[in-house]
């Protein structure tokens, strides 16, 4: 429990009492989360419909599952439907099923999610994305507890408890006419607002602790890393726009980094500088995390380990470079239309590449970079340190980029 011992000066740390034990890995220490869990305990055994509101990554799905697990239906299925991910034309048949031949491509009869959730719970995630015509149908299902498959007139009764979630402001959606008021009122029999992580920072150290444990196991590391107390503070203070999902990705990277950077037989350590690096490295990658390489169990060191280390470091460098490039473009006031591919094929003098970019009518990243470098050097009269700081990159990176761009001769203290 190093993480806990390392904690903080004046952060209110409360030990969750045994009788409120939650399934392993679910953290609810803050008052806000305590209250939510209390409501969940009270309503879980009932049949009432629940609407979960909250930003992406706040734990709506985790809590929906918790409601199911604490209900009489826990032996039954828990079916998640991501309403935003299903093409509009298919939602009805996915939800309610279809008969053979009811539309092109319906080669066989198929049961829908409502039937699959029989005697269990159906979790309608991103309900705010549901098209209006289906909202009508869903409302009818909630009211009559029955539905028909696409291409059939036979009523099938449903015994599925409904939990819905969205990160949209549904009231606003209702006012804008994008969400039916009657469905909204039907769904919000119980409405829970899950606060963003930045409004319940007391949870953060406990989440870190649980995640450290999880990732040490997942990556088969021999030892739990220690974590500097300043590192924990840096994590507590972060904004976490991606909430717990983002925190998980950051902690996973830190765990892997600490194992990679481990010195000899010393216990791995997560330092404040590691946290700053991972956060500064565009932690917004939480939407698309960099999957760390699986690590060999410690003890099996040697060549394999050092190769992994090299690869991982190269990946991190690449990310840093991307970040610097983005900053550079931003700093120069140019916007939009950066082709990621330009990064991969940045061999100078690749004429195809230049032609096609001209045809498209915008400069490639490489071309922009060239211009940005030149301008910065001209403005700083060839002073490398000044130019680098104007571009927001290190001198070393500037040096490398100048060479790559064939601008090496612009370096030096005079032009
Ligand atoms: N209370 C919690 N304790 C521990 N981990 C959580 C908690 N809530 C969410 N998580 C983790 O955070 C991530 C995002 O949670 P999820 O339920 O998918 O969020 P949402 O549905 O709101 O986008 C998941 O990996 C989940 O395991
Ligand atoms: Mg979700």
Largest sheet: spatial strand order = 2-3-6-1-7
Distance linking N and C termini: 58 Å
**Mean pLDDT across residues:** 79
Cofactors, ions and other ligands in the entry = adenosine-5'-diphosphate, magnesium ion
Task: Determine the number of helices (DSSP H or I, runs of at least 4 residues).
Answer: 18
Q: Find the structural class using helix and strand composition.
A: alpha/beta
DSSP strand count:
9
CA-based gyration radius: 27 Å
Sequence of secondary-structure elements? HHEHEHHEHEEEHHEHEHHEHHHHHHH
Describe the structure.
Helices cover 46% and strands 8% of the residues. It has 415 residues and is an alpha/beta fold. It has a 5-stranded parallel β-sheet with strand order 2-3-6-1-7. It has a two-stranded antiparallel sheet with strand order 4-5. Helix 10 packs parallel to helix 12 and helix 16 (365-379) crosses helix 17 (384-391). It starts with a helix and ends in an 11-residue tail after the last helix. The model is unreliable at 1-19, 283-301 and 333-362 (pLDDT under 50). The structure holds adenosine-5'-diphosphate and magnesium ion. Magnesium ion is lined by residues 60-61, 125. Adenosine-5'-diphosphate (ADP) binds next to helix 3 and helix 11.
Brief summary of the model shown:
By secondary structure, the protein is α/β, with parallel strands linked by helices. It is built from 18 helices and 9 strands.
